[in-house]
């Protein structure tokens, strides 16, 4: 069937694009600046070259309108805080002295000043810097970055569309600043913030912006009537401005729901909506709302968060329906392409058949352009592309890699008993305490130790053939011995081997499981200069042989203290991969859980008494709508218990979570039935400890006292103060002492001092405990 051409040609566009460059040039330049090897002018030139290259690539691909302002040195929410003048008091002097160094101080902190809190951007693995606001916050406009990047694009001959975080989302993402009452609602500052946005919009209009995009993804979550009224007021006021560009309000990551009629009725010129699987309901909702007469609709029909090729015929059918619901329909991805790697063509080691199924940012850009051409000129204009797309989709559906009968038979045989420990926590904790003999306030770390230049060099030398496997393994053994020796001298109670053999906490396991594929260049930003390469989960999952037993057993042979086995949990293995979209997530999670169950049991059989199965993504993957929470949490917690419930009562199961808001999943944390949980808590001043206490959490917990995402070295006094806060919520017999997260990204000098201070703080607090407790 031929799609009806639009009255005006459909335009291709994107909401945002990966920032790092083909070879992570931005990461290298920023880290070089931090180390003093790159000056500020060189860093700025590198950034400008990357922006120029992105816009040129988009334009050459056929994108008609390129985004500006989405580029960031660290985080786009932090950029918004700078744009509206929401700089915390403790950072103002640094910003006044040097704007760039002050910006990085807000992101990373300094030895004397703590950074902003960091948490997950909706249900993605991207982290943003949380704005700190209070009733005394005074907003002031600073549009210099946004205007400068707009002018850069105009000077190069592009049609730019500045992208800003919308005012409602910005306030909904913020939290009360330190010292402000916890029940303070940042959204009460909306009337104070809107004039600042008006000033920025006027500046962008004066600089030549025809359209400005205001991102409001927070509106796809459940919102109260007061929050929806705030959104209506915001866009009634901004839409009513006379000195502004046309406004495109963008939502993504799902169904806009109750906010759709609010925005549809507002005096803005366009809306951008998600029409992929997560936002499919937007189609019916839009029709029910009477469409968007007189407005532009940007239709997100290409998945901006996964890496599978688009189904052209399905997308064209959606686009054809949308032609009757808006005055003008343009084509885009469902979200910024920030969340996918740059170019699938760079992956030369992936099976050519599988490579046909993959679309990274550049390929998704091409898909958007093809769909825009098909919508404008009819399907005859893209007949060749449609035929190739049909063949590629059929190839994937019929591929042997996607289905393993043995794996499916095993998952079908799972029983309820497989997901339950043989004894309840109250009984098995007695066995664990007797077996492990740990003191009150036991100290440990989360798993990884610094990945030194020597380790990375050894890994590169092995790949290049400069050393053989035996030489590489000796280097790993040396590192494990050094890590264990340090921990013993520092006085840490439960040790780790430091994970020197591991490249990434998901990729390392993915490379040893069937059904997973690893990329060489598939880098995606997690936060700041931290980039990860999510593996591709393409088929059924199984574990051919043990993955961690050898190195964990070697480490245990070197010490009398317990050494934790370290694994990544099933939910995180999915969340931090590009997961298959051809079966329910819960089914895939059960497959991964069974593979991990085999590993957990083998670790125990080889003498490991403490096993940590990390699930930092449990909260991150929580659906954005409350109606979907129960179904997700059921399979998520079941998969964790399935992985960990086959051990003896005296084997202690740990889990770890970090950098998310945990208050709304405490019951799910309880349902995991882990013996010990460690959580990020340093930047949030032990908030999670209070949340656990309010729930009545009955097990052991280690809220972190060392923020490892900052170069700051916490003093003994600082760590002790946090421990005292922890003890106000968690009794000493159930409180552990640990960092927020793994130490992979830190250097050895700061790691040594910080952990020594952590142990000293634990000893200091133990000495303060009543005699009967100690």
From TrEMBL:
- From the UniProt record, give the pathway where this protein acts: Amino-acid biosynthesis; L-methionine biosynthesis via de novo pathway; L-methionine from L-homocysteine (MetE route): step 1/1
Q: What is its EC number?
A: 2.1.1.14
What one GO molecular function would you report for this record? 5-methyltetrahydropteroyltriglutamate-homocysteine S-methyltransferase activity
The active site of this protein is located at 709 (proton donor)
Annotated 5-methyltetrahydropteroyltri-L-glutamate binding sites: 24-27, 120, 576, 620
Q: Which UniProt keywords apply?
A: Amino-acid biosynthesis, Metal-binding, Methionine biosynthesis, Methyltransferase, Repeat, Transferase, Zinc
Instruction: List the InterPro entries.
Output: Cbl-indep_Met_Synth_N, Cobalamin-indep_Met_synthase, Met_Synth_C/arc, UROD/MetE-like_sf
Q: Where does L-methionine bind?
A: 446-448, 499, 614
Q: Which GO terms describe its biological process?
A: methylation
Give the binding site residues for Zn(2+).
Answer: 656, 658, 680, 741
Function (record text): Catalyzes the transfer of a methyl group from 5-methyltetrahydrofolate to homocysteine resulting in methionine formation.
- PANTHER family reported for this sequence: 5-METHYLTETRAHYDROPTEROYLTRIGLUTAMATE--HOMOCYSTEINE METHYLTRANSFERASE
Q: What is the protein name stated in its UniProt record?
A: 5-methyltetrahydropteroyltriglutamate--homocysteine methyltransferase
Query: Organism, per UniProt?
Result: Streptomyces cyaneofuscatus
